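Worked problem 6 (solution included).
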Amino acid sequence: MGIPNPKRLELLRLESKTLDGRFRQILEHEVDCSPVVARAVLGAVKEVYAPWLDETSRLLPPGRTGLVAVDAEEPAGKPIIECSKRVVSLTVHRGADDDALLQREGPTAFRRRRIPDLCQQALSQGGLLTREDLAYRIFFVSPRTISRDLACLRHAQPARPLPLRSTVRDIGPVLTHRVEIVRLALHGKTTTQIGRILHHSPEAIANYVGTFTRCAQLAERRLQASEIAFLLDRGPGLIRQYLELLEQCRRDPAMKYHLEQLLDLGQLGPAKKTSRSRRRGRPN
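Solution. The predicted structure is:
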């Protein structure tokens, strides 16, 4: 048996986090194709459909980038190549404020200011970034440079672990973290208070609470956890924990009151539209 080549393994991990890699993984693990057949199918799909894809339909707003990240529900210790992936959209450059930061303090300060927010953005969309993602896909520096940035951030705020793939063990299960955010909202905590307690961005908190309220609406229609997960494009593990939290709401008058307040805010409108549109295209 040969000695593993670290650089080769790094390239394989990066390759698995591309759209091509995600497509091949679906074919190999869900359709039971061999790697050779999966590559052949991918080539045929590109040959047939690529000329007809509208490039402008995939444009992102200025300052944003899209990448393939490891699904946040994948357990720690599982090889990245074998993990499910999720496409996330991240705001790397926020405009004039970041221009001023770059001019005043330089690229190192810019990276260290943006890394925590980018990690939270990915997590709010169900993905976890890695050191390699930050190095090769976002900031275009070496992994060693990102390691120095992360060490500096950990030293500056030791009580605020970053939600990176490598630190999932340190922050505890990601699912539990999301449920705790919703639990605090159901106890009447504001977004600002939740952010201060759990160090999450307002966007991430709104995402989790919105998903929970849509889950509650669909649960009232007596849908199963697997059906809700399909309609909301969320993992079944997260949906099961949200349904357990709903059961607690029914037994706790205070939590039930705040749940009704969330439902009355109109956060469930998009869920009805999503439900109808996905059912039309849902496989039998």
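Discussion: The chain has three domains: 10-56, 60-170, 173-273.
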